[in-house]
Amino acid sequence: MITTAATPSMDAEVLVIGSGAGGATTAAILAEAGFDVLVVEEGEWVEQGSVVPFSLEQMDRQYRSGGVTVALGLPSIAYTEGRCAGGGTEINSGLYRRPPHEVLARWAAEFGIVDLDHEEVSTIADEVERAISVTTVPGPSSAPSEVLRRGADRLGWQNSEIPRWMTYPGNDPAKGQRQSMTRTYLPRASAAGARLVTGCRIDSLDTGGGIARRAITTLAGGRRGTITFRYVFVCGGAIQTPALLQRSRIRGHIGKSLAVHPTVKLAARFADELNVPDDVPVHQVKEFAPDLSFGGSASQPGLVALALSDQWATFSHAITDWRRISVYYAAITSEGRGKVRAVPGLRDPIVTYSLTGRDRAMLGSGLARLALLMLEAGADEVYPSFRGAPLVRKRSDLAAMQAQFSANKASVMTVHLCSTVPMGEDVDKCGANSFGRVHGTANVWVNDASLLPTAPGVNPQGTVMALAIRNARRFAGTERSRG
Amino acid sequence: MAERFAPPEVTAITGASGWLGRALVSRLLSDPSRRRLRLLAHTTAEARALEALVPRSGTTVEVVIGDIAKPDTAARLLHGTGPSVDVIHTAGIIHPTSTRQFLEVNTNGSRNVAQVALDHGVRRMVHVSSNSPFGTNPRRSDTFRAIEPYHPYYGYGRSKMLAELAVIEAIEHGLDATIVRPPWFYGPFQPPRQTTFFRLVRAGKFPVVGDGEQRRSMVYIENLVDGVIAAELTPSARGKGYWVADERAYTVNEIVETVGRALTHEGFTVKPPSTRLPAIAGHVAELGDRIVQGLGRYQQQLHVLGEMNHTIACDISVTRRELGYDPRIELYEGMRRSIRWCVEQGIEL
Amino acid sequence: MASDPRHPRLDRIVDPFAGVLLGADLPDLTLERRGEVVEFVRRRVETMPSLTRFGVTAIGVLYRLLLDVPFGSFAIRFLVARPLPILGEYPRLIRSLGYAYVWEHWPDSLPSGASR
């Protein structure tokens, strides 16, 4: 176990807040560069394999607020945040996508990001892929995954198996080990001398004249404490990071441009049993990227029931067939944006999000295309997850499905949250500079998904890690030379 | 290039006096391998006009008069055509006086033709459908692929969707049929509403809704004829549906600019475009269209204006690959030819 | 698990409503199981983020008051059948927590909540 107990008075050269994809990589890079690093994580260390993936128990122990977090709007969008050592990397699908070249180029141009060198990011991505063992499944992919491939192939839609950060001891596809942060960058940071403290929440940063001097903490049991530091990296994720900066009275373009990948779902039933309760399909359909993508969701029977619950009156008969059912999603890149606002006196920020008319149309059209794919893949019944959805058995039912669909009636959710402290030199659009230093501050950096100027249209962890390493290395080079 | 059938002994065509119908007939009349044409006209006047066409290469033309919505018309069309006959079904109504006509003509008419074609044992039926069963694209950057879910755009879309479903049902019972889906037509043989379009552009008054960057696929009529014939004569096209359109979609701004340029180069004076309506005008028109159609009536301008707000774009790559379809004419050239045709017909622009 | 002392007595607010809702949705769920699900739902409400918990609690109070009124259960059933914009979020949330729990723990339950 590499964690140490939090104490009321702590000190470090570099304080890293949060231990997820951004925090863990930052800590490892800086510790290896010789900095004295303290990583402070609000959640607990939960060993991979000690909870069933996608179970309610996992949501209790490793998600913020038991997984019940919502961005208010019409409709509200449910989201999830990791709250544990390793953050979101411990609980997500594990699907890895390289930072997309065109997206990086667009960010650099539209947000004024300096020195965003595609070659450099690409080399870092290679390094990350080795470090977390990005690999495809050895052998055939699961039946629910095959559904996506088969349906997409019949429609002529581009699709592929997405690799994941996994090792497969003995090359056994059933025994994959997630190479999340608790297995990779956190032990690496620790081996290089970084300290990791869990169960400690950062309430605010004391700042004056653009310099942050100490953090006010709340420890287990409610005791207050402080941490003094020379530099601080805020890596709490796209919701907690801006909230913390706002509580610390740091002003700027912070919390104003939340971008997510809104997602709608359906369940589909097939002739043969195919349900895999504790794993997620590795195939994704990218024919309509970046606007729209399809993939598979966790489908343990509780989640199948959830997918059917919007139209329980007419769909409930399917629950007894859960072994023949799998849940799939259609995700869009959204034109709409949201806001994160810390409110004095409330522990959690208020999150709002608003979808545009075209976002809604895209969700409806996306879900119908996904339902079509399911029919082509051989589904005998498709259950779209929205109130008033018709049962879909054949292509002519898709017209009724689209006619009935409205985003307000669907359970819209997202598992990707970005863009609340966008990086770039344009201070009107960006909260941090080209390397993550918060505008208007001298020693506060952000180094997580908040920096991504838009939601990238692909699973963002690869991009978050590559940018975090780029920024951390730049910091190390610059600050070390200052002595 | 895809493998091809030889042309049939008889080619039966419904809607022979329509825009596509006349272009198709004109093409087939100059093809010596087309021995007999059996054409359906709606009225006596149409029949006479068709009979007056001079075949350029010894093709026999037989005209049948009838209303496609009536059950026996299709049977009379195919009566005595023998075992080697293809049916190309282009008859339909786009802008009716009452919405009842959508179902009567488009749905029931197509069902009648498909049923009779199946009973007769035609070699191939080509069913001319539309983009309308699939609605509009959710975003400007979106494009319809070869297979899409149904999302009919109001009365016309619904009737054309039901027509496709009737043809598909006949296919499941053994009919050899292919569905062709063209978007907005342009080109020679155009009807009066298209003349209005040219006049509006000349006057600078074509109503561009919103910023005009919404995309619309269009199809030059000769490209469409190529596509229909390819669908007719490609054996492997059986049971499938294909988009037949120009190479790419055009933005509304591009359309107005190109038509203006074509008119200028054909010697017409053209005023610069001055009519821009906010996007809300399109939404209001569409709402109006929905209400009017809900009452069983139909108002053409309201419908067209409502639709102008949207993107309707389709991808022809599968049509190219499987039918060997290649759209030879694009917008500027196609518009110049249309304008010249109007001038030749004595139509005032 | 003891209730968090910082929160109002949520068991008095959440439990009866959740009980009625689940009782209506899943009539054949045994009382023992229903109790377990209701307790799980209440624990989740306790850990919800501030604003959501406040909203859920406020609406819960409303429903709780309805329960005490004559024909209150009938009124509740009427309201939860209508997809009202804000009031509708609360039953929907309880329902999703409840269903996820039932089928994760007793996956062979029938649609009415009965065990097979």
Give an overview in words.
The complex is a heterotrimer of chains A (483), B (349) and C (116). Chain A is an alpha/beta fold and 483 residues long. Chain A has 2 domains: 3-45 and 84-132 and 180-253 and 420-482, 3-Layer(bba) Sandwich (FAD/NAD(P)-binding domain); 140-175 and 262-414, 2-Layer Sandwich (Cholesterol Oxidase, domain 2). Chain A is built from 12 helices and 24 strands. In chain A, the strands form 7 sheets. In chain A, strands 1, 2, 3, 10, 11, 12, 13 and 24 form an 8-stranded mixed beta sheet that branches. In chain A, strands 17-18-15-21 form a 4-stranded antiparallel beta sheet, with helices on both faces. In chain A, α1 packs parallel to α12, α4 crosses α12 (461-482) and α5 packs across α10 (357-376). The model of chain A has no long low-confidence stretch (mean pLDDT 96). Chain B has 349 residues and is of the alpha/beta class. Chain B has a domain at 10-187 and 218-247 and 312-329: Rossmann fold, CATH 3.40.50.720. Chain B has 12 helices and 13 strands. Chain B has helices at 19-29, 44-51, 71-78, 100-120, 154-172, 192-202, 221-233, 252-265, 279-294, 300-308, 317-323, 331-344, and strands at residues 10-14, 36-41, 60-65, 85-89, 124-128, 177-181, 184-186, 208-209, 215-216, 218-220, 241-243, 250-251, 276-277. The mean pLDDT of chain B is 95. With 116 residues, chain C is mainly alpha-helical. Chain C has one domain. The longest helix of chain C has 19 residues, at 50-68. At the A-C interface, α8 of A face α2, α3 and α5 of C.
